[in-house]
Write a structure and sequence with these properties.
It comes from Acrobeloides nanus. It holds the Pfam family ACOX_C_alpha1. Belongs to the acyl-CoA oxidase family. This protein folds into 3 domains: 75 residues, Acyl-CoA dehydrogenase/oxidase, N-terminal domain (Butyryl-Coa Dehydrogenase, subunit A, domain 1, Orthogonal Bundle); 137 residues, Butyryl-CoA Dehydrogenase, subunit A, domain 2; 296 residues, Up-down Bundle (Butyryl-CoA Dehydrogenase, subunit A, domain 3). The mean pLDDT is 97. β5 and β6 form a beta hairpin. The chain is 53% helix and 8% strand. It is globular. The chain is α+β, with helices and mostly antiparallel strands. Bound molecules: ligand LZZOIA2V and flavin-adenine dinucleotide. The site of ligand LZZOIA2V has 30 residues, from α6, α8, α10 and α12.
Length: 671
């Protein structure tokens, strides 16, 4: 019996769990890996046993100051408990523990862990690492990553903050020369951090060498007051992540020692001589890390929101399908399945590719340490595209899950506003999505040039297909192929065609006299399409490969249903492109749609058990609608009764305004 079924649960949800064709626990093991699943359970138990991690009230009812104080309290507790609760050397355990204890809306260590420490690990030289890393890991300071300025986020070449080297004192002078040079956005900069990685234009011997990272103390270690010459604060409430004190920062001729510059790759010698790095973008590795991590992060958001939507749709009865047979669970509506199940399938696809890309990141960082930088452009290309596509599709998917939950989906109690507002940040941070799509397109255009000139680069799993000659007509038909060769070939065809077409147009525009840059801008929409097609191909192939590795027949069959849905849903999503050149026929599109509907029907009886197997706890979901026990209605009422507005039956200012107005209106009407 499923470990998710307990006495007192909503019977509709229990009925759903009993219907499953597979063992939920075995599925959870497959999904997370046996060891990770066991550790997740142990960590979740640990947190449940320490009630001090509980929020004093739902965070939705807290003011911003209360939110930040609560997060800060829990962050300190988290660090105090970490060594007892988890193996701190295992990233998976840290991420899970942090998510359970601190939630997803931000915490004072967010940027310290995600960007500052990776920058120290990958950009500090040995001496600097010896000095900074133990202190960073030991929480002797909290650092953030200050790169974006009020005037420039994308175009790093135009950052205005300067770091001018003074050989006489062997110091850099940090300065913010204009209002637009004010650092703006860095997470945890406003109030929590006392150090920061600061990206500034490096000047030495009268020459500018471009943006470089520096490690800068911002606040006094004892008083926490900003150091002389430094102005720092919070940028105010935002669309979401209001638990995070995203900040602003200005420097007024602040002097820092020469060794504050990260010197693993580029260096300034004491006399001011600049030593360039082996690759000009090695200083950007923390950004590459977060872009890669976003893929798994989007998987987590999608799987959490589809868990909420599926569970709620199992207990929500509304309307009849066959008149007179009683109200159905809303999950029985095909439209509901069409809204929610593709989000599950995309979440799984993102999880699988997310694992791949993080491994590639780790491998590339190791290669760089060993002096091999050859994988840097490939990692950059695929991580930019994946980040852009998964954050965009993730955002759309979360919104579908919310809308699938009707009015209650619009409540903060649903958990959707928190998930959504956190998730959509990823469309912008770490490289705005269009900009990221265009970065991948640069790589694709190089590949197109190689194809046209008949000189393929050295073999590479991600782009080899571009150099293949695929079928000239789509081979999708009604026969079942577990390798989905014809679908993958269709995606490859679309990607190859769009890439080559936009390349040819780029060349043609230049032949007509446009500069490369102007031609590029005229082709930008199609360049983005090429990236999307390439990323779709990558996600799809990774999904097929991973499903083919599953040994257990009953689990594999569930994954195959999700894979079928994923692949044919994507075919329908890119149908215009496949039909445009006559590659796919209308009839084949009809087959694809039928495959989508068939997959929905196959997934329907397993849906509740599938989302259970993602093993997302109520503590993580923070959702009344997505509760494991399905007891939504009584808990919605309890939740509303906790609203601070309900502390008073009559609001203290009622008689001052509305009461007075109505009294006066009644008086007048009596006259
Ligand atoms: C389940 C998950 C569990 C746990 C979670 C784990 C971790 C947490 C994950 C997420 C964290 C969550 C929350 C964090 C929240 C927020 C963090 C956000 C922080 C930030 O936003 S920091 C600021 C980020 N800023 C940007 O990204 C700026 C974007 N701009 C750029 O990157 C660049 O300027 C550019 C790419 C647009 C262009 O660069 P450029 O102008 O310097 O260069 P050129 O255009 O001249 O290009 C030259 C050449 O270099 C290539 N290039 C560019 N960048 C790179 C790179 N990074 N690596 C390799 N190569 C690069 C470029 O492609 C060109 O190549 P070509 O050969 O000439 O074509
Ligand atoms: C939640 C959140 C957290 C953040 N955290 C941090 C942080 O910790 N540290 C930090 O340094 N920064 C942080 N940022 C800043 C973030 O990295 C930038 O906002 C992002 O890189 C985009 O830069 P921008 O805001 O200057 O947008 P702009 O570059 O001004 O872009 C505006 C719009 O113009 C278009 N555009 C711009 N350039 C191009 C181009 N080359 N081609 C095509 N279109 C283009 C895009 O549509 C874009 O949306 C954060 C931002 C957010 C929202």
């Amino acid at each position: 019996m499923s470990r998710y079924i307990r006495e007192g649960d909503n019977p509709d949800l229990t009925e759903e769990r009993r219907k499953a064709s597979f063992d939920t626990e075995a599925m959870a093991e497959l999904f997370w890996g046996a060891r990770n699943l066991m550790r997740r359970r142990e960590i979740a138990n640990y947190v449940e046993q320490h009630r001090e991690f509980d929020d004093p009230q739902p965070t939705a009812f807290m003011t911003r100051e209360e939110l930040i104080e609560n997060a800060t309290r829990k962050a300190v507790l988290t660090m105090e408990h970490a060594e007892k609760a988890i193996d701190i050397t295992r990233d998976e355990e840290s991420h899970y523990f942090n998510a359970l204890t601190m939630g997803i809306d931000g915490n004072p260590f967010g940027l310290h862990l995600v960007m500052a420490i990776p920058t120290i690990m990958n950009n500090a030289d040995e001496g600097q690492q010896d000095e900074w890393l133990p202190k960073a890991l030991n929480r002797e300071f909290i650092a953030t990553y200050a790169q974006t300025e009020m005037g420039h986020g994308t175009n790093l070449k135009k950052l205005e903050t300067t770091a001018t080297y003074d050989p006489k004192t062997q110091e850099f002078i940090l300065h913010s020369p204009t209002i637009t040079s004010t650092k703006w956005w860095p997470g945890n900069l406003g109030k929590s951090s006392n150090y920061s990685v600061v990206m500034a234009q490096l000047y030495s011997q009268g020459k500018c060498y471009g943006a470089h990272p520096f490690f800068v103390q911002l606040r006094d270690l004892r008083t926490h007051k900003p150091l002389p010459g430094i102005t720092v604060g919070d940028i105010g409430p935002k669309f979401g992540i209001n638990t995070n004190d995203n900040g602003f920062l200005r420097f007024d001729q602040v002097r820092i020692p020469r060794r504050s510059m990260f010197m693993k790759h580029a260096k300034i010698l004491p006399d001011g001589t600049y030593v360039p790095p082996s690759h000009s973008k090695l200083n950007y590795s923390a950004m590459v890390y977060v872009r890669a991590a976003v893929v798994s992060l989007m998987a987590s958001h999608l799987l959490a929101c589809s868990t909420i939507a599926v569970r709620y749709s199992c207990i929500r009865r509304q309307g009849e399908i066959t008149p007179g047979t009683g109200e159905v669970k809303v999950l029985d509506y095909q439209t509901q399945q069409y809204r929610i199940f593709p989000q599950i399938a995309r979440g799984v696809a993102f999880r699988l590719s997310g694992n791949y890309i993080i491994q590639l990141y780790r491998q590339t960082m190791t290669d760089i340490k060993n002096g091999d930088i050859s994988a840097v452009p490939d990692l950059h290309a695929i991580s930019c595209g994946l980040k852009a596509v998964t954050s965009y599709q993730g955002a759309l998917g979360l919104e579908q899950c919310r809308m699938a939950c009707g009015g209650h989906g619009y409540l903060q109690a649903s958990g959707f506003p928190l998930q959504y507002t956190v998730a959509i940040g990823a469309c912008t941070y770490e490289g705005e999505n269009m900009v990221m799509l265009l970065q991948t397109a640069r790589h694709l255009i190089k590949m197109a040039k190689a194809i046209r000139s008949g000189r393929p680069p050295k073999p590479n799993k991600v782009i080899d297909y571009l150099f293949k000659k695929g079928p000239t007509k789509c081979l999708i038909d009604q026969t079942y192929d577990p390798n989905y060769q014809s679908v993958l070939e269709a995606f490859e065809h679309l990607s190859r065609r769009v890439t080559l077409e936009v390349y040819d147009r780029l060349v043609q525009l230049q032949q007509q006299g446009r500069s490369y840059e102007l031609a590029w801008n005229e082709c930008a929409v199609d360049l983005c399409k090429a990236t999307r097609a390439h990323v779709r191909t990558f996600l799809a192939k990774t999904f097929v490969e991973e499903v083919n590795k599953i040994a257990d027949i009953s689990l594999k069959s569930v994954f195959q249903d999700l894979l079928q849905l994923y692949l044919f849903y994507e075919v329908t999503e890119c149908a215009a492109g496949l039909l445009e050149d006559g590659f796919m026929s209308g009839q084949q599109l009809t087959y694809a749609k039928k495959n989508v509907y068939d997959a929905l029907a196959k997934i329907r009886p397993n849906a509740a058990a599938i989302v259970d197997s993602f093993d997302i706890s109520d503590r993580e979901l923070q959702s009344v609608l997505g509760r494991r026990d399905g007891n939504v209605y009584e808990n919605l009422l309890k939740w509303a009764q906790m609203s601070p507005l309900n502390k008073h039956d009559v609001l203290p200012f009622h008689h001052k305004y509305l009461g007075k107005m109505m009294d006066e209106a009644r008086q007048k009407s009596k006259l």
